[in-house]
Amino acid sequence: MRVLVVEDEPMLADAIAEWLRDESHAVDIAHDGGAALDRIAVHDYDVVVLDRDLPVVHGDDVCRRVVASGAATRVLMLTAAAEVTDRVDGLSLGADDYLTKPFAFPELAARIHSLGRRCRPAAPPVLRRSGVTLDPARHEVFRDGRYLPLSKKEFAVLAELLRADGATVSAEHLLEKAWDEHADPFTGAVRLTILKLRRKLGDPPLVETVTGVGYRLR
C-alpha cells in the first residue's frame, strides 16, 4: 500500500516509516499539515497516519480536507490526546480509526492493514493465480509449492499484479503503490523489478509485457 505518515517528531516519523517499509509498504513522510496536504494532492494514498497537533495546518483540518475530497484514502489518527472525548471528536471529523500514543508498532501495522483492505475492492486474504500463492500476513510467496525469496519491492509488485487478476497494470500504478515519492520515474525501477521477479518465478513465464500499457499475469 501507499502510506503517508504525518508526524512532527522526526524520529518517531522515521521509526513508523521504517517499520511499515519492512512490511513492503511505500511510505512518505510529512512533518506538518501543509506538507501533508501538498502530498495528498499529488499522490493516491491508501492510508494516512495523522497526528492531530501539527504545525502549519492542524491535523483536524487535514482530516476534514481528506474526507471532503471524497477520496478512498483512509485516515488513522495517531495522537497523544487519549481522553474519550478526544477519540470521539477525532472519529466525528471522519477519521476511520484512532490510536493513542504510546502505541505498539505491531498494533499500528495491523490497523493500517485493516484500513487498507477497506479502501480496495474486496480480495481474499491469500492471493492466488496460475500456481502462485501470496500470503500478505506471513509475507510469503510460493509457486507450485516452491518458496520464492522475494525482495520487498518484488513482493509489492507481485501483490499488485495478483490483485489485478489478469488485468493489465501500468508501470505508473506499480510505481505509485510500491515506491515512495523519492522514486525517479525515469530510472527503470519498475522494469528492473519485473525482470528480477520473472527470474525468481521461473518457467513457464507468468509475467507478460503489454507493449505501451504495462504488465499482467497470465
From TrEMBL:
Any idea which residues the entry calls the DNA-binding region?
Answer: 124-218
Domain OmpR/PhoB-type: from-to ranges: 124-218
UniProt cross-references to PROSITE patterns, sorted A to Z = OMPR_PHOB, RESPONSE_REGULATORY
Q: Name one Pfam family in it.
A: Trans_reg_C
Question: Does the keyword section mention DNA-binding?
Answer: yes
Keyword annotations of the record = DNA-binding, Phosphoprotein
The chain residues annotated with the modification 4-aspartylphosphate are: 51
Report domain Response regulatory positions: 2-116
Q: Which SMART domains match?
A: REC, Trans_reg_C
Domain of life (superkingdom) = Bacteria
- PANTHER family this protein is in? REGULATOR OF RPOS, TRANSCRIPTIONAL REGULATORY PROTEIN CUTR
Its name, as the record gives it, is Response regulator transcription factor
Give the species this sequence originates from: Amycolatopsis nalaikhensis
What is the phylogenetic placement of the source species in the record? Bacteria, Bacillati, Actinomycetota, Actinomycetes, Pseudonocardiales
